[in-house]
Design brief:
This is F-box domain-containing protein. This protein has 559 residues and is an alpha/beta fold. Among the domains are: 89 residues, no CATH class; 80 residues, no CATH class. Strands 1, 2, 3, 4, 5, 6, 7, 8, 10, 12, 13, 14 and 15 form a 13-stranded mixed β-sheet that branches. Helix 19 links the parallel strand 7 and strand 8. The relative contact order is 0.08.
Amino acid sequence: MDRNSLNQSVGAASGMQSASVEMDELLSARSHVSTLSPQRKLAPCHSNAPSPQLTELPIELLADITNRLENSDIKNLRLACKLLARTSALRISRVFLSANPLNVKVFRAIADHEVFRHGVIEVIYDDARLPRSAYEEAAARRPDLLRYSEARQIGVQTDENWFNNERQQNIREIDRHEFHTAGQWDSPARIQQAAAEMSMQASWTYYQDLVRQQDEVIADNSDLEALRYGLRRFLSLQTVIITPAAHGLLFSPLYKTPMIRAFPLSFNYPIPRGWPARHEGQSSFAAAAWVNEEDAVWADKVRAQWRGCLIVTRALAEERRHHHVSEFLIDSKQLLTGLNCRLFEQQCEAYDDIVSILEHPGLRRFELSLHIDGQQRLSWPAFRSGLLRHALAKAKELEHFSLAADTDPDIVDEGEPSPSLETFLPVDHWPRLQHLRLWNLSVKKGEVISLLAKIPPTLSTLELGHFIFSDNGDYCSLLHDMRLILRWHERGIRPRVKIALPRKPFYRDGQSIWLEREVNEFLYGNGANPFDARLGLNRVRQGVGVLRDVFIADYEKPW
């Protein structure tokens, strides 16, 4: 029986369950250890029985099948009959949190559960707050608007017009994404959702209620208190991720949080990104000052755009004696946004919290996405202050590091060139480094080679994505110099090198052309350089590499 057939059997046996039933299941579920002997067959269910092929299987085979199911399917299976409820235990290794009461409630329920809490190894904080209004959405890209009261709404459309325009844009984005993925984005469930789209008024009413709930959580900081509680209760916790990308695309979320699972089937709403984000085709905008002594009220409003990130770093720093988090990710998931880099211009509370996390013994992985637009016109103070390098150097046991930025290639030549990578990346302080990822940075080819030459021989994977070369460099000559100068083919550990390119001229958020096999055959074998001089030294011909999409699970097609 394949997975799709099994999912259909489970769904037919139990039907679709409401969000309240799902919550009741979580709050009341208990883990049951089977005492059945090996090869013993299960007695059939007599009430609401699914097809007999499930209940007549040996327990070992049934256990193997349920281990391959998602929790949503296991919940349906458990509701089919008591016997399957006893033999199909939920697996909860990941929990979600955000400024939403349902997410907070589920998070606390798992933290209170004496079985489930021991299985949690990952916490994901969804920092994509829902904009309260057109003004708030506009202020994310125009921080100067935060200086004015919302009542003035200078040059901002009305709230309902904004909401409806975003809904229409979502539908257009679905069409574009489906076209650029050759139909692989589509599914019967999404077709059903799009066809049964909620009315504008019903969607607006539901959205307003979500915003009200969000405001209540922010007012009482119940998400922060839940996180502090969870850090003490989740004894196996390893990874904490903060991301603005949880909502993904309409009807295709990156993470199915309890809040998102509870949405009405065809709820169409403005997809939040939380942090100030530059969407495809939009012009860049400068990051606002993190500290502004002349206008402290405005600076508070600027920092509030990263509220989730700030409360997570504060909780991790304050609870450091009570957790063993070894992986900390501030991850934009390839969206053109990130943490405001200007917090690294001067010492501040947020900076101190990050340093406290990085110097915590046992931290092995750190990923950082930065919003850097405007730095070139200020002479790059966030990268020249020494604070970023100082903070990163505290992570002595680091094995996995990623740095991504929202560099705009159209303005990379404006202002002062970016500082060298070695100015702010202390690779000489990471003797255990195994994985390095550098994404969407303005670089000079020679400085990249210089940095890579200093990386310890422990490196096993290197990922270079969406580079903007500021010195007439290119990927073609970069690979040539890597082979000739670095001579990694002589190492005992040959790093696997991956290069990601934007899909030009049809770039979509989350999509990249990935080169791996071709790159490594050139570096370590007899393969040709994959970059085609006839197309440009940063481009490859059709048929070289594969196309992947962050927002479509398992999507991969030849380029």
